[in-house]
Amino acid sequence: MEIQTKQNDTCVTLTLSGRFDASVAGSIKETISELIDRDNIHYVIDLSDVSYMDSGGLGSLVASLRRVREREGDIKLSAPNCNVRKVFELTRTHRIFEFYDNSTLAAQSFQSA
Fold first, then answer.
1. What total number of domains does the chain contain?
2. Which residue of 12, 70, 78, 79 has the smallest Cβ count within 10 Å?
3. Model confidence pLDDT, tens digit, residues 3-24
4. Rounded to an integer, what distance in angstroms lies between the CA atom of residue 10 and that of residue 79?
């Protein structure tokens, strides 16, 4: 799993690529925790290059979302493929995240909020 981080005026975009499973879930939570400690509370997680996600990856996103929302922030997800999207739907966590077609639209949604 590769994680690229890019910050702009409204949010931090994390672009993930590869397999998002339990073996890398901790690194995502750690990255977001470090960013939260620097007062970043708005995130876009670009899933367009994630080839696989399991419950460990999903759990790290839910835990991070909980922590971000405690600070009155949010995490928005962009461009998951059909298989990744299915993980959210099967676990009904698609109800707690906002999904966007691409990371640009997700980032723009923070400006209009």
1. 1
2. 70
3. 999 999 999 999 999 999 999 9
4. 19
Interatomic CA distance for residues 52 and 43, integer angstroms: 21
CA distance 54 to 67: 20
CA-based angle 10:1:91, to the nearest 5?
75
Output phi, psi for 93, to 5 deg: -80, -5
Q: How many CB atoms lie within 10 A of CB 77?
A: 22
The β-bridge relationship of strands 12-20 and 2-7 is: antiparallel
Q: Are 84 and 47 in contact (CB under 8 A)?
A: yes
The boundaries of the domain holding residue 32 are 2-112
Name residue 98's amino acid.
E
* Whole-structure pTM value: 0.93
- Read off the CATH number of the domain in which 52 is found: 3.30.750.24
